[in-house]
Amino acid sequence: MTQPFGAVRTIAWRELFPWLILFRTFRIAIAPTILAVATIAVLLTSLGWRVSGFVFLSPEQRIAQAAHSQLAIPPEIEGYLPPSVRTPLLDAYFQMAEPLARFFHFDLTLSEAAFYAFGFLWTLAIWAFPGAMITRRATVQLATDSAPALQPTAVFACRRWTWYFLAPLYPLLGLVLLAIPISLLGLLLRLSTGFGVAVAGVAWLLVAIAGILAMWLFGGLIFGWPLMWPAISAERDGDPIDAFSRSYSYVYGKPLHYFFYVVVAAAFGALCWSVVWGAAVLVQEFGFWALSWGGGGGAVKPVREQALDIAAGELNWQNDGFLWKLGTTLIGLVLALIHAVAGAFRFSFFFTAASAIYLLLRQDVDEKEMDEVFLEAPSEPGTAPAPPIANVVTQAQSQNPE
After folding, report:
1. Which residues lie closer than 8 Å to 370 by C-beta, 6 or more apart?
2. What is the distance, to the nearest Å, from the Cα of residue 167 to the centroid of all Cα atoms in its chain?
3. How far apart are CA 125 and CA 120, in angstroms?
4. 48 touches 123 (CB < 8 A)
């Protein structure tokens, strides 16, 4: 007897391989509005760190700190990467997390602690708004295949800015509460070395238990904080507590899934970064190349070198002429803006990829479809309706379940 069979018309690749959503992050990360807000945040963050350095550090400490900050990715991690390969995912991650790691150094002075505390809180406060806009746009666009409008996205980010700012601080508060009793043992050690050591020895079992709790908190914070802001952006009840709970649940619930998504996103990000940086270099060098047609390579070369030095923050003048300084300074400022836009892509890609990874892990752990994101119902008659996605949760549906 002949068995009936049918031809396969289409293959739902997104259902077979949900992680393909990661390859949709590039076009979101290079959106002009996203790059614009990320560029402003990069410039303001740099300004805040400079102010913190001048207020809290000595000139010698500022020089040492500047030399230390040249390396974004720790050598222990960079050793696993192919030579000459940079990925914006890891660059942005370690650039934002590195100041926090400095607090765990034993030899940290009071002025250095104040420097890193101010810089970390400044960075968190500045990036809470653009990070909110990027993750909100990314989660909605990945879920609905349509980008939300700029104004409602900015309003959403402003309304929940406090939640974005506080979410990464919750685990840190737990670490501080665990550290305070142990610091009291340190005061005894300062007052009387022998007595302090004896008391510490008696209490060290409790200290070890506190260390286990700190390990759980710190481990979830290290790997989970990139998921906190997408949680606030995607969920109707997204708040610091919900973001904390979801990020820790996903990190400890599906660690191998998380690792796989990060590896894919990092590899894809390296390819995207090569494209973006190549475009930035082309924009930078085209003007000098065209200028050399009229001025000659010998005359343009020192101008280019001086302008690049200015863009990098180095003011070692090769010529004392006023007009020379004025012209090269203006060119250097334009080059600095080009570099800032290229650098902003690292952060826009980081938050966009984090949003995609959050949706993937939410589907793995909570079995919630990736197109289920919270969309606010239009408040004005002329506002466009929400995209016709069956699983998208709107504010009106949440208030009227019937």
Report:
1. 18, 21, 142, 143, 359, 360, 362, 363
2. 14
3. 9
4. yes
Do residues 185 and 196 make contact, with C-beta atoms less than 8 angstroms apart? yes
Q: Is the pTM of this model over 0.90?
A: no
Residue pair 25/137 in contact by the 8 Å Cβ criterion: no
Nearest to 49 by CA among 138, 134, 119: 119
pLDDT in tens, 120-162: 899 999 999 999 999 999 999 998 888 888 999 999 999 999 9
Residue with tokens 């030095």, as numbered in its chain: 309
- Count the Cβ atoms, other than its own, within 10 Å of residue 285: 11
Closest CA to 364 of 232, 256, 234: 256
For the beta carbon of residue 241, count every other beta carbon within 10 angstroms.
13
How would you write the chain as a 3-class SS string? CCCCCCCCCCCCHHHHCHHHHHHHHHHHHCCHHHHHHHHHHHHHHHHHHHHHHHHHCCHHHHHHHHHHCCCCCCHHHHCCCCCCCCCHHHHHHHHHHHHHHHHHCCCCCHHHHHHHHHHHHHHHHHHHHHHHHHHHHHHHHHHHCCCCCHHHHHHHHHHCHHHHHHCCHHHHHHHHHHHHHHHHHHHHHHHCHHHHHHHHHHHHHHHHHHHHHHHHHHHHHHHHHHHHHHHHHHCCCCCHHHHHHHHHHHHHHCHHHHHHHHHHHHHHHHHHHHHHHHHHHHHHHHHHHHHHHHHCHHHHHHHHHHHHHHHCCCCCCCCCCHHHHHHHHHHHHHHHHHHHHHHHHHHHHHHHHHHHHHHHHHHHHHCCCCCCCEECCCCCCCCCCCCCCCCCEEHHHHHCCC
Rounded to whole angstroms, the Cα distance separating 98 from 116 reads 10
User: How many Å separate Cα 57 from the centre of its chain?
Assistant: 26
Stretches where the chain sits below pLDDT 50 are 1, 71, 76, 80, 83-84, 380-390, 392-402
What does each C-alpha distance from 330 to 174, 300, 311, 320 come to in angstroms? 48, 15, 10, 16
Q: What are phi and psi of 68, to 5 degrees?
A: -70, -35
